[in-house]
Amino acid sequence: MLDEMDPHAARAALEWLVEMGCDEAIGDHPVNRFALVERAAPPAAPPPLSQAPGDAPAPVDPVTEAETMAARAGTLEELRAALDAYPHCDLRRGAKSLVFSDGNPAARVMIIGEAPGREEDRAGRPFVGQAGQLLDRMLAAIGLARDHADPSRAVYITNILPWRPPSNRDPAPDEVAMMLPFLRRHVELANPDLLVLTGNHACNAVLGQRGITRLRGSWTDGFGRPALPLLHPAYLLRQPQAKRDTWADLLDLAARLEG
Known about the structure:
The relative contact order is 0.12. The protein has 12 helices and 6 strands. It starts with 6 loop residues before the first helix and ends with a helix. The chain has a 6-stranded mixed beta sheet, with helices on both faces. The radius of gyration is 32 Å and the shape is elongated. 44% of the residues lie in helices and 10% in strands. Strand 5 (220-222) and strand 6 (225-230) form a beta hairpin.
């Protein structure tokens, strides 16, 4: 560029460039860097070590991963750790605690609820609020307790969801689907003689059926063992007239244990 200019003009141009801070010659002609940015493609990220170049990453199925993680757990402690490490359920982000279980793991009776509420989320234990206190009184009426040292008189309690849903909303179908492998493995590891399913969501998850007022009081099969649908204690707090039916169901449970 300078070769085509008058020597005096070229010197003046060089002096001006130096004054402007241009102290390095890169090319003979100016380059529009903004146009280069528009044309340039962003650099491609290198593929993972386990992925061949050109292959798209395999999608992760949350249910399949839950089944794999649950199956690897050989103890209740390992199952709790697997749940704590499971990354795909967004409920964990808004919950304070992982509510895993309460009671005697060797109990003959395992009670399955729906999801933790505010009190359960704070305490990290299932059924500790008003509904839980009513449940304790119901169990005591037939000689059972969650903290009883005798497995024949104890109960073991868990929920479908280990994390509290926002505003205590109902469990979403995708959330139940992700947690179902963990729940099934939980029952396998605890190995109770009987299941008690409290409320519609527990019945829907374990039995694939809804309509607790129709299902209650009739023994059925859940996860390969006898299961008794029972009205949820929270429902009884709202509908105390239903306690008569629940008392009959509790007597049936006691008779089944004695038998």
